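Archive entry. Fields below.
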Amino acid sequence: MYKKITDFIQYFGVARLIILGFFLFLCVMAVALNLDFAELFSSSLVRIGMNGVLVLAMLPAISSGIGPNFGVSLGILAGLIGALMAIELRLDGYVAFFGAIGFALPFAALVGLGYGWLLNRVKGSEMMLATFVGFSAVSVMKIAWLILPFNNPEMAWPIGRGVRVTIALDNRQLAQLLNKTLAFEIGNVVIPTGLLAFFLLCCALMWVFMRTKTGVAMRAAGDNPRFATAAGINVDRHRIIGTVVSTILGAIGILVFAQSYGFLQLYEGPMFMPFVAVAAILIGGASIKKASIAHVIIGTFLFQATLVVAMPVANAFTADMASMAEISRIIIQNGIILYALTQTRGE
Amino acid sequence: MKNQVTLTPTARFNFKKAGQQFLANNAVTIMFVVLSLTAFRISGMNATLYLTDIISRISRNTFLVLSLIIPVLAGMGLNFSIVLGAMAAQAVIIFVFHWGVAGFPGILLCIVLATPLAAGLGYLTGKLFNKTKGQEMITGLILGFFAAGWYHFIFLQLVGSKIIPMDNPILILSYGVGIRTTVDLSLAGLKYGLDGVFRLPLTVVVIIACGLWLVYQIVHFLKSPRTRTDITRVAVCGALSLALVVWAVVTMSGTSLIKNVQVPVATWLAIIGLCLFISLLSKTKLGQDLRSVGQDRHVAAVAGIPVDKVRITAIVLSTVLASWGHVIFLQNMGAFSTYGSYEQVGMYSIAAILIGGATVTKATVGQALLGVFLFHTLFIVSPAAGRQLFGDAQVGEYFRVFVAYGVIGATLALHAWKHLVQSRQRLEELES
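PREDICTED_STRUCTURE:
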């Protein structure tokens, strides 16, 4: 019996167990404190939908062998450019949303190509490099946001130049566009149908892609590069495909995120977003080398629901609940990444 | 004439090839010299202002940057976890502030208390790094974020509450729990606690330094076989130091404001001490062990060196030095952001040493010093240059942040690429 338990802990992962325990503890506390469960559940659903696509962006990266994509901020930046172009052209509603995706796609694909090329040249230190490519890109774009010729007064500073730090989306009927589509209530729980449907659609497309010839070859390249080479698969090419798909999903992901949040966040905004997504898929059970769609869904749910419940529970204990929720996010997020790093056993 | 021709094939120095090699090996540094000079010209900055600022920045940051060298020797790459040392320093400073120990004794107390705390954190970091061999840098980076979470938890939620009581309206937030977001060290008399111990004008320091340098060179010369190169060297040194002394004397007696620029001698002595410690370390048993572990872990293990222990020692040393460095940094700044100051420490120090020409596997004291100088020059002049070029100082500020990240990214990429090419070549050699 004892061996069974230790085996299970080994299989499940200590860090993951701690986080699950913390989540259950929070739920018990929420019951004890008589919190409104319907509301907590509704906001959990929204947070899952809005973060889901960004987390899904990790899947092709891990599968193709480049590891968790710490540089998904490249995709996020492409998505933001797409959104700004849609706003500049004064598109509305769904036209704006899909227009933004359309504008973002070429940028994301192009940047993903270059980024994949770079990652092929630094095999073994992809994570470190990806992080700094992301940081550098975000800081270059900070300059670009000041210089790019966007003129729509909805996003430009009234005086001086450059676009604002946060841009409200409700003027373009973009705010909560997907969330409100076909939304309905069960009891007091609001189901954001459009948002969840979009996320699940992305997951389904990814599921199909992973089973196409390219997808299977890509997974083989990530699983065992030497074996894949022997089988006649061009490993470098499939790593680039994985990177491009991941970057594109990053671009779509930020648009889904932004429409639900109601604002575009530029400048510092995208800097630390990749870490949230990386942590979520790792919590779901993925490792640096292996991931599946189930990991994406479970991880997003567990991570986001924990954060949603943590906020009101913290409120009962501390005067400064916003910072307490943020602190638990930082500790959980980076703790799980550290744990995953220790599981790879070095080179 | 004839003699020279016969000598050519063997003895003539191949300038073209050496030049190319020099360019390739120092590309980053050369680029920064050019960039800094250009930005300096564009900014139109006043020399006195620049000198005052750069001296204060060099004395503030050099110790921290030097703390990065030992893990590089041990083959652990750039130690992003020095932020843990910085956090230890901030934690200790907050309490010393609270107890009201001011001035130089206060700084000494900070150093004494920060040492065991940083050593403990360094030990844990070392243990973690031993589990993630080959990925130390990303682990260190994430560990910094992770530790920041706990630091926030302690100083925002626990300090001031019943668990860690602290009754101090200057430090604690208005609702009674948590440290304020900025701590002003001048209120506790800790500002310039080390810098203020002993200051001398820059001109005097230049004269003293030139004198010492000349004495060293002459002693060296007298011991040498006095060949032509030895004579040339001592002559060049003599001419250089004479020129510097003349400049110093002229400035001292002249009207230029540069004569008012002061140097914090105590801080500089601490920095020189650390430089000597690192140079001497390579001659000790520990230094040799560090180097062998850095070259090849497996060979070192076969040779009977306790690899894991040596790696932990390297990180402990680095973390402790970083905590001292951060105390020096903060006493010079005079105020710090409780929840932010440590964050940039790792990134900026690493960018600085890389700009000086260091890589993931090689770092020297000279590179650290040059790097601090170049990096901070760019930091000082880039907002003004940005204003001149784009009409917006913000552009310059964003640019310097980009430079910090960009240079780290570029160096890592170049290093990883070189490594990959080398291992591929080795493989091809084996096959053929």
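CURATOR_NOTE: Strands of chain B lie at 182-184, 199-201, 262-264, 335-337.
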